[in-house]
Amino acid sequence: MKKIFLSNIIFTGLILLVFLNSLIISQTTYIWVGSVNSSFSNGGNWSPYRQIGRATDRLVFNNGQNITISGLNQITFAQMVIRDNTNVTFIPGSGNARIIFIEGELSDAPNGRNERVIADLKYNEYNIEEKVKDIATLKYKEYGITEETKKTDLATLKYSEYNNPPASGMGDLKVNTDPMYNPNNSNVYIENGSSFRINASDPSLSILLKQNAKAEIYGTFVLEGQMHNSFNSNDPYSIYFKPGSKLIQKCPGNVFNSTGAPNSVVFESGSAIEIQNSAALSPFAMESPYSKMVLDEGSKFIMSAPGSTALRLSGRNYSILEINCIMNLNEIIISDCYIKDLIINPAASLTINNLNYANPVPYIKLRGDLIANGNLVFPENTTSNINISIEGTQLQKISGSGTAEFNSSLNKMVISNNVNLNRDLSVNCNVIHNNGNLNCTQHTFTIFGNFISPFSLPPGVIIQNNNYRKSKEEPVPDNSRPVIQAKLIPEPLPVVFSLGQNYPNPFNPETTIEYAIPVESIVTLKVYDVSGKEIMVLSDGLQKAGNYKRDFNGIALSSGIYFYRITAKNGNDIFIKSNKMILAK
């Protein structure tokens, strides 16, 4: 009898344990039904009633209102979805700094199956006639399609409906009825037209995505207040700001700090990050070439806070850099900066003062347009410690009604592409014209230095010397003054072997590698992966003395670290050097 009683107790305990475990690992969707100003911890503000918060909870905000939710403490949940033009603001409870942890593992969607699983299932049902369920046969008869081509079209349509809604028919129905819908079942999902705001003055409030968690932002994400609030992840390439999205920093400090993995935040083409706090620090958050964020081609970095040190140039890669304020940049620039389009808006200015006086002199490499409706200033000094290079692959334009001062802090300007000068411009440095058509027929390009080019002097270029000015608009001077002719000087040959850092870096998928050969040599330039496996040969053969460029395309490779190595042999002299580069897709 005692044994039976004991067995019953053990059995009951096991059943209870299984029940409790199922509660722990189950995921419940809670939809916010509270008022516009309510407490996060009040269970009645959620449907169903949220008695105890669990790390597996899914939270949905979709009432189309402006919601302010207060009293957030140290919490963990699995998913947050903000959609249907809903604007949510989180305010922390009092006490120490607060962190919201987002768990990485998600089970199937609330209807029991993930949308992508359903898409694959339906594709099989219609296309392969694999009768996973009876509905396959019913639907096949319902449509009455016997031709293989039509059947395949139907399969593709159904696949699209489930996998990439909204689409016609069932896909739309599925999107409209599922409050948890987001394209990739992300842990954090902010729909276009919706916004999420952290407003924390004391204490701070931050978000940390744990391993395997993913965020997709299509709307607006704002961090504001008097404290350092941040958004970080333990995994690289896990926070995505999608086309049309925007992150606005209205708080001090680093919005992406040293917590978590490098390259964890990706701004895709059409997205933007805007700095609006003068005490904001660099969102790159790491010493170059490493970074917490990746700025894809077509993304925008906007500076709207005078005095902020968030803008950094050394070793950084911008697609569109837009200046909306007075920026006096005093930075130790030790490596090249890459900018596609530089836009300085009216009443704004950008003054670039490099505090690094050591060689080699770094470059600001412009790959797109310069639009200076405000002021762009390289200050007047004797350091000559910054270069500017115009080196895009498509026509580049220099325009704008603001002031462009290229003074003696510039060492040289290098032009290696087709350029339209849509404004008057003067530079107080040497200009090296390597390649491309320099079109300044409607304006003047005045050079206080040597014009070094293998080509004839373009119309509109003025070489200023000893207060004498020779221009296409002026008549030929009389014999009372000497004529100073523009002298075409070939670019000097290098005096030492060198291998430059690839640019841009990180890159996706193309980058350029430069190297210099002072004497005729047998040269090999190869790319390797981290295991030492040879990926590609960029150069292999006898090369004359000179400066060289090689393009590398990693479109067929996965993201990661790669190395390129040069070996140059001239008799008994051998030059070997390797550099690291990062492919960030």
Question: Would you mind describing this structure in some detail?
Answer:
The protein has 585 residues and is mostly beta strands. Among the domains are: 1-110 and 190-259 and 266-284, no CATH class; 115-177, no CATH class; 498-583, Immunoglobulin-like (Sandwich), CATH 2.60.40.2550. 12% of the residues lie in helices and 39% in strands. The chain has a 19-stranded parallel β-sheet that branches. Helix 2 (115-128) runs antiparallel to helix 4. The radius of gyration is 30 Å and the shape is globular. Mean pLDDT is 82; it is low at 18-24, 108-133, 145-152, 159-177 and 466-489.
User: What is the CA–CA distance across the termini?
Assistant: 68 Å
Annotation, overall tally of beta strands: 47
- State the helix count: 5
Secondary-structure class:
mainly beta
Helix content: 10-25%
Q: Which term fits the overall shape?
A: globular
**Fraction of residues in β-strands:** 35-45%
| Average pLDDT reading | 82
Q: Work out the radius of gyration.
A: 30 Å
Largest sheet: 19 strands, parallel
Low-confidence stretches: 18-24, 108-133, 145-152, 159-177, 466-489
